[in-house]
Amino acid sequence: MSPDPLEILSALMDGEPVAPDVLAAALLAPGAREALVDFAGLRARLAADDARPSAAFLRAMNGILGRRPSAAWAVLRRVAAVVVLALAAVGAISLGTRFRGNAPDEPPRATRVIQFTPGVDWHEGVQR
Amino acid sequence: MSMPDATRLFDDHHLAVFRFLRRMTGSASVAEDLTQEVFLRVVRGLDGYDERSREVSWIFRIARNVLVDRHRARERSPRNASLRDAAVVSRPANQVLSAILDEALARLPEEEREAFLMREVGGLGYHAIAEASGATPDAARMRIYRARLALREALGSSRSAGARIPKEVSK
To answer: Tell me, what's the ipTM?
Structure first.
């Protein structure tokens, strides 16, 4: 019994060796060309699957495999830490400069004078 | 050939295993759990790795065993199984064609779906599929062919009228 022409085309899709004359005969069968296109369409639909596991899954697997974060990620973290420290330092210097710039060179001038008379307003050694 | 490194095996194969299991189960979260279980078993089984077998066959055989264990667990606790099925059914189907394909895949016999997805998603050849599933290469070829015909018909092709569905060949 000769093999089904579509079975030959299916094997061809899977990279199996098919003799040229057998392939030619299979392609002449009714509906063979359409079937080949449909098989290729099925493959294309499945190949378009770009589903990926979540980041949480990858973190868990890195733990299971005992793998540290990648070198690029480690460098990125260090750069981020340096940037944060630099921003904090610049901010602190800026604040310090601002306060020092507003600071008066002389003590404030008195706006009123309060005088106390010894023996009248206060008594030495006496607590109230 | 030396013993493979688990990290390298994970990097090389986890996407294919995840996508295979996602198609087999219809759920990304279940596929993540099962993929994790697969690579846990890979790590534990490295000492017993048979150098004569194909690396990808070995990993997909483990994936298949994980699926079989899941089926058995679901049979033992049907209540959990129904809850999981409900979760699968309620998943969002953003792409209509993808949803139709998923449904058509779900209707395939288990062995055909498995062989077809090992081929199309995992990229395994007939011999590798045979090693992973315990079938013969001829059986793998026939299962894939039958799956293609069934999916083609399910996806609405009116041109498949002339295709005959062959009987399963002996394992």
So the answer is: 0.76
